[in-house]
Amino acid sequence: MRARLQMLVLLAILLAAIDLVVALATVHVHPEFGHHRSHTWIALSALDCVVMAILARLPSRAVAVGCGLLVGGQLGNLIWAVGHNGVVSNPLVIRAGEGGVAFTFADVCELIGVWVLMVGLIEVTFRHRHLLPQESVAVRLARRISVALRD
Question: Which of 7, 16, 109, 130 would staple 76 via disulfide (CB 3.0–4.6 Å)?
Fold first, then answer.
């Protein structure tokens, strides 16, 4: 468990640092694509980092890596937003016609982190499926749906 938490912390610090370096190097490239963040967003992002630290205790390296990617991305955005009056600049822009998509390195880390976390949670669920309840409303509903789909 301790190794997974260390993995999360090291990965998060590394990715947040990379995000901050990229953001600092490109701070004025696309100022029109900055996103304003509220105090609520800041509080919920901090809470999400705590939840990821709790999830990383599950017996899976994939879950720990996914949590580390998510926390790294959130820390990068959090630190930048707190230091820049609640504005997260988006240096990576893909233009399309009049608009485009703007994002940060941290956003990419978070998207990949969600995918890795889901894969890890599915793996943990399969590995420990013998601990899941055999009878519950959800289990009965899933059985009925699977029978109906077979017919």
Answer: 16
- Per-position DSSP letters for 16-39, written without gaps between them: HHHHHHHHHHTTTT-GGG-EE--H
Q: What is the extent of the structural domain holding 49?
A: 2-150
Question: How does pLDDT run across 55-67, given as a tens digit for each residue?
Answer: 999 999 999 999 9
At 61, list the tokens. Answer: 């390296």
Handedness of CA 99, 114, 50, 105 (dihedral sign): negative
Give, as one character, the DSSP assignment of residue 93: E
Number of domains in the chain: 1
Give the predicted TM-score (pTM) of the model: 0.80
Q: Under 8 Å CB-to-CB from 2, ≥6 apart: which residues?
A: none
pLDDT per residue over 118-146, tens digit each? 999 999 999 998 887 778 888 888 888 98
